[in-house]
Amino acid sequence: MSSPYQGALTCVTCQIVFETGDTHREHYKTDWHRYNLKRKIINLLPVDRPTFESRILNQQIKENEENTKSSIYCTICKKSYNSQKSFDSHTSSKQHKTLALQSDNEHKDIGVPAAKKIVKPVENKLVEESDDEYEDVDDDEEWSEVVSENNPIVNNICLFCPQSSENLLQNIKHMSDAHSFFIPDIEYLVDMKGLLVYLGEKVCQGFMCLWCNDSGKSFQSIESAQAHMIDKGHTKMIHEGEALLEYSDFYDYSSSYPADTSLDDYRIIEDVNSQLILPSGARIGKRSLMRYYRQNLNPNHDWEAMKETKLNKVINHYRHVGWTGTFPAAAARKARDLKVMRQVQTKMYMQLGVKANKFQKHFRQQVNF
């Protein structure tokens, strides 16, 4: 008997099933998915969407209540904190110490203790719940309980050396130029920052080599793990075999092969434009019209009107240094392997659920009177 989830689009992290590919791809961009990813890093179970939204709402209510009290303001980093505990955690971070040292060099009379300043309470209105709030939560420090403060990616530091950069893009360029680190199958990546933060947690918390993964030597510090990766030439991310399933939440290979190979996918226009449109979107014209196709008329393609994102900038930088892209056959092979592994995982979850149901020895009578 086949599983009802076999062949369906699923999210392993959030443990949900999707009906269409569009909702599947949009789910990877939500803060709910990123929140569960960060819980997965520290081996916590995922939460459903109602629980996540209730936590966000409770956090907002708590913040509004705390803002009625006096807040603590850091004059060096120009940030305010609602409690002494959060302020002490901030002052112990590497970013604050670096800025405090720079400020101390410029003004000798300013030190770390001078960063504390009591601010009068500010009357805040209860903010309405919207999608923009979820993005703000991810940009601020509300995720500090699930992401380590010494995560190199969060602090714009290289995964393999202490080099610091201005932003995430500069950090990625440094890792590719100095350490030949390239994100595999970047064309199919849907959450670049989430993947890099996850790699940072493996390095700074698990002290793991990104290439050896669990099968290699164990290390006792982040410095020893970084030294191993540089000395052995392991400044790269393994993305094959069992590692495909580990990083599956950050990738989407659905565009590497047609979802349905029926004849409806092949749209043929014979008399109007004399073109054959393939499922991939490529257009094949008649040989008799070759001289017209060779003309450089700069057609207005859809991809030319797209706004350049961070991912596009990284891809352009990779191509500038000689990267040629992922072979479609290799991407399709990974997609098939990942599909098989997900089917096996779904089957194991089903067997585990059936086995857990047998633990209950007594059942309540299902009566309506």
UniProtKB/TrEMBL annotation:
Q: Tell me which SUPFAM superfamilies the record gives.
A: beta-beta-alpha zinc fingers (SSF57667)
Taxon lineage: Eukaryota, Metazoa, Ecdysozoa, Arthropoda, Hexapoda
Q: According to its UniProt record, which protein family does this protein belong to?
A: Belongs to the REI1 family.
Q: Which SMART domains match?
A: ZnF_C2H2, ZnF_U1
Q: Where is the C2H2-type domain?
A: 74-96
Q: Which GO terms describe its molecular function?
A: nucleic acid binding; zinc ion binding
Q: Where does the record place it?
A: Cytoplasm
According to its UniProt entry, the protein's GO biological process terms are: ribosomal large subunit biogenesis
User: What keyword terms does UniProt attach to this protein?
Assistant: Cytoplasm, Metal-binding, Repeat, Ribosome biogenesis, Zinc, Zinc-finger
> Among the entry's GO cellular component annotations, what is one?
preribosome, large subunit precursor
What is the name attached to this protein's record? C2H2-type domain-containing protein
Entry annotated with the keyword Nuclease: no
